[in-house]
Every structure is written in C-alpha cells, then in structure tokens.
Fold this protein.
Amino acid sequence: MSELFRIDDLHAKPAEADTQILRGLSLTVNTGEVHAIMGPNGSGKSTLATTLLGAPEYEVTSGRIFYKSEDISLWPTEVRAKAGIFLAFQYPQEIAGVSVIQFLRQALSARKGIDLSVLELRLSIIDWMKRLGMDSSFVDRYLNEGFSGGEKKRNEIMQMAILEPELAILDETDSGLDIDALRIVAQGIREVRQDRPEIGIVLITHYQRLLDEVKPDFVHILIDGRIVKSGSIELASELEKNGYDAYRMVA
C-alpha cells in the first residue's frame, strides 16, 4: 500500500468572496483505502470536493494537494480528470442533446487517449448496467435529463466504473436516495472496489447508513473547514449518538 493522495493544510475560499471555508484541512489517502468525511451543513464538505477537482469557483489560498507524489495544486480540472481523479457530483448536471453513451465515449477517450467507437463502449458497459439495475435503453437518454435521483447517482457510479479512475471523490452520493436505491449504489461501489482494489475513495456523506453498506477504512469529522477527529467506522456510530455539537468545541 502506497500513498495515493495527500492534502496538506489546505485553505480555500469562494473565488468571488473573502470568507475562508476550508481552514487548514489535511488528509492522506493510500491506495485501496476508503475514507469517509462527515460533517454538518456548511462545514465545507462540498467545497472540499469541488476544490479537489480544481473548479474555478473556489480559490486555494494556501496549502498543497499531492496526487501520486506530484503537486497538483495548480493543475486545471481537465488535467486532473485525465490523470485519474474522478468526482461524482452531489447534484449532477443535465446536458441536453448529449446522450449518456456519447458523454462516456468522450470522457473515456480523453482519459485513456484512445478513440473508442460507440459500439465498443456499449458492449463494455452492458454488464455494469445490469449490476446497477439500469435498463439497456438508459445510455441513449440525454445525460441526467429527466433522470430520477436514483438514476443520476447510479449513472455516476457507472461512470466511475467505466472511466477507471485511481482516485474517486463521491460527494454525497446518498443524497436524495431511498433505501433501495442507496443499496444499489453501495453495491456498485463495492463491486468497483472488488474489480479494482487499488482504487482510493473519498466518500463525503451526512449519513451513517451509506457507511454501514460500504464500510470505510477511516471516518473523519469535518467542522468549520477542518478535520477535528478521525477514527474507524465506530466513529460514525459515536457521531449518531452525540451529534456534531460534541465536536464543535474541538474545532
């Protein structure tokens, strides 16, 4: 097991504002590890996810981000994605006129540096659609247009499976899912890990129920832009009992 990803004392703020949201966040993810980050609304969870992909909405004011021992703090979003960093969005965007399979073909061609045909790609994703309970016609629909919450999140997991990233950041993948849809998504995450055990995952969530399904190696509590406590999955159970207020004084 080797270091895959490291965040050192990261501070970040919205590009159009002066309020610091991340205020000294540090985290190390090794190959094959799953790290869950839990925190209340406004703690900086989604800011962290977006900042890690290099989105222009947020500005890193200090600290550094390393991926496979390289400082990627100044890398643009598309370079990070091509290098194998994947972000599953809390609110996936609709793209009218672009089908799921067209989107996947473009993304995979950019990621792998090869020009796949639609037919080749269709054959390769049939198995994943079955695993995720998706109808075979799903990939011909426009990306996220008219999708239910569960369909959007399953589509994100299918993207993670097909694009074969080395680091996946899943931003509140359980948001808006009923228990059946959550179990399908969690099963998809487990199967991706089974197929590719070296993948590192940062799982951002509000709820313990997803952690019960995925069973992360580490759980971190994020309060006011800092990780204030880290531990095993038992920390999530402790959080369920005590709530976030018990950790605010630490921050």
Notes: The chain has a mean pLDDT of 87.
